[in-house]
Amino acid sequence: MTQFRISEVAGALRVSDDTVRRWVDQGRLTARQEDSGRMVVDGAELAAFVRARRAEDSKELGRASARNRLDGIVTDVRRDGLVAQVELQAGPFRLVSLMTREAADDLGLEPGSAATAVVKATTVIVEASEPGQGRR
């Protein structure tokens, strides 16, 4: 069974090590100490924790088919004729959206604006990686 160190859990969930330790202390996430003294989380336990958090989060989202929501900040808006290209930084992810100029204007999108990217894709490619060896 795959085991994840606290720092690996934090990296995968994009939270701090302290947040993961707090979840363990609160009993929300189960971790055990290895012979080396390191705290590790079982992969199946981590998956169950993520599913439970996702279920909690989905209650706040309402009824929509798109579940991939990334909060971020608008870093660039390029308007040209009828089209606008909007660039959003959401954590470590850079997203670019093409929309009508009218939509960008109606949303008031400008560099520095808070925004949420809602992603609905027909193709998602998943690559397996060893814990701690994920691509960035």
Short descriptors:
136 residues, alpha+beta, Multidrug-efflux Transporter Regulator, Chain: A, Domain 2, OB fold (Dihydrolipoamide Acetyltransferase, E2P), 2 domains, 4-stranded antiparallel beta sheet, 3-stranded antiparallel beta sheet, 4 helices, Transp-assoc_OB_typ1, TOBE domain-containing protein
Explain what you see:
It is a single chain. The protein has about 140 residues and is an alpha+beta fold. The chain folds into two domains: about 5-60, Orthogonal Bundle (Multidrug-efflux Transporter Regulator, Chain: A, Domain 2), CATH 1.10.1660; about 70-120, RNA polymerase II/Efflux pump adaptor protein, barrel-sandwich hybrid domain (OB fold (Dihydrolipoamide Acetyltransferase, E2P)), CATH 2.40.50. Helices cover about 30% and strands about 30% of the residues. Strand 4 and strand 5 form a beta hairpin. Helix 1 packs across helix 2 (about 15-25). The longest helix is centred in the middle third of the chain and has 19 residues, at about 45-60. The model has no long low-confidence stretch (mean pLDDT about 85).
List the topology elements.
Layout lengths: L2 E3 H8 L3 H9 L6 E2 L5 E4 H19 L6 E13 L2 E8 L2 E8 H7 L6 E6 L17
Antiparallel strand pairs: 1-3, 2-3, 4-5, 4-7, 5-6
What is this entry, summarized?
With 136 residues, the chain is an alpha+beta fold. It has helices at 6-13, 17-25, 43-61, 101-107, and strands spanning 3-5, 32-33, 39-42, 68-80, 83-90, 93-100, 114-119.
